[in-house]
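User: structure tokens for this one?
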Amino acid sequence: MKKYVLLIDDDETLLELGKEMFDILNIQALTAFDMDEAVRCFKCQHNNIGLVIFDLNLDQVSGIEVFEALKEIDADFDAVLASGIFIDEDAPKYIELGFKEIILKPYNLSTLKQLSEKYFNQDKRVNE
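Assistant:
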């Protein structure tokens, strides 16, 4: 059962807040500040990571580029795209690329709770 979430964002404050919120939800959160860190973390933990939340616009690359790099390592994870600026008409493009959904930043506990229920409770139901 994959039980970790990987948060990828170039905003360290948002990474820390996201990690703390997932801790409240009893979900192990790993964080990465850039593509290199995300790839290193994912290579080591991909067997445990079930959900990855990607910032759309990182400093050096896009979240889409990071998504593609992680899929080359192991495509068995759910991907959510996070953006502070989002245009609804772009949603189909991102869904077609393989993202399950798009959330607005800064995310809050309610949003992360909904994601955790959606992507992690499936495994809990199977094991009950």
